[in-house]
Amino acid sequence: MPGYHVKFETVTVGGFAYQIRSLADLQQYYDPLQEAELAGISPASWPLFGHLWPSARILAQAMHTLELTGQRILEIGAGLALASLVIHRRAGDMTVSDWHPLSQTFLNENTRLNQLSVLKYHAGNWAGKNPGLGQFDLIIGSDVLYERQQPGQLAAFIHRHAAPAAEIIIVDPNRGNRVGFCRAMADLGYGFTSKTADRLIENGDPYKGRLLTFAQCLAS
């Protein structure tokens, strides 16, 4: 048995039920090989990947109806990757990325629970070069701006892996780092729109946040 505790929950997105294995609580730490420590993940932040956060649920709802044809798609900081599972179920060309050493393990188990084929996965280091990851037509993420250094790192990472006409969709629960991220994206040549996200999660809980959409500005 692993050295952490899990639970199973059902999430309904667009009328489809998804079975999700997640951490049983956020008071856990298990790093026997020091993989998380070497990746710069502190004991306090170690369990964050394994919780199904409200913003992830909102992103999954948005991905149920988004046009996917002809798009190569990347989810960044995916955690439990609910949005990726929704896209995968819709036969989208999906790649999942996260920096947590257990993220792929949970992803593989959740694809199995939902009787889906194995999803493409790539460990995503926002501060590194990530050779072999490539470029994508659509990059998505949820609640990815919770640390001070992240806006600049994430903007640079997105820019490296965004195809010339790429669209970027970020769901943010009104974190203070959002302004810095939008500024960093603008400095890299991206325009953006911001709108209020759905006010209710699929389970009926209220949600307060923004849906940010970015695209490269065309030269005049």
Can you offer a commentary on this structure?
This protein has 220 residues and is α/β, with parallel strands linked by helices. 26% of the residues lie in helices and 28% in strands. The chain has six helices and nine strands, in the order E-E-H-H-E-H-E-H-E-E-H-E-H-E-E. It has helices spanning 35-38, 54-65, 82-89, 103-113, 150-161, 178-187, and strands spanning 6-13, 16-23, 72-75, 93-98, 120-123, 136-142, 162-172, 190-196, 210-216. The strands form two sheets. It has a seven-stranded mixed beta sheet, sandwiched between helices.
What labels describe this entry?
two-stranded antiparallel sheet; 6 helices; globular; alpha/beta; 220 residues
Give the secondary structure arrangement, pairings included.
Elements lengths: L5 E8 L2 E8 L11 H4 L15 H12 L6 E4 L6 H8 L3 E6 L4 H11 L6 E4 L12 E7 L7 H12 E11 L5 H10 L2 E7 L13 E7 L4
Parallel strand pairs: 3-4, 3-6, 4-5, 6-7
Antiparallel strand pairs: 1-2, 7-9, 8-9
Helix pairs in contact: 2-3, 5-6
- Mean pLDDT metric: 94
Low-confidence stretches: none
Q: What is the helix content? A: 25-40%
Q: How would a textbook summarize the main sheet?
A: 7 strands, mixed
What is the total tally of β strands? 9
Largest beta sheet: strand ordering: 5-4-3-6-7-9-8
| C-alpha geometry | globular
How big is the Rg?
17 Å
* Structural class by helix and strand composition: alpha/beta
Give the N-terminus to C-terminus distance in angstroms: 59 Å
Count, helices: 6
- Give the SSE string: EEHHEHEHEEHEHEE
Strand content: 25-35%
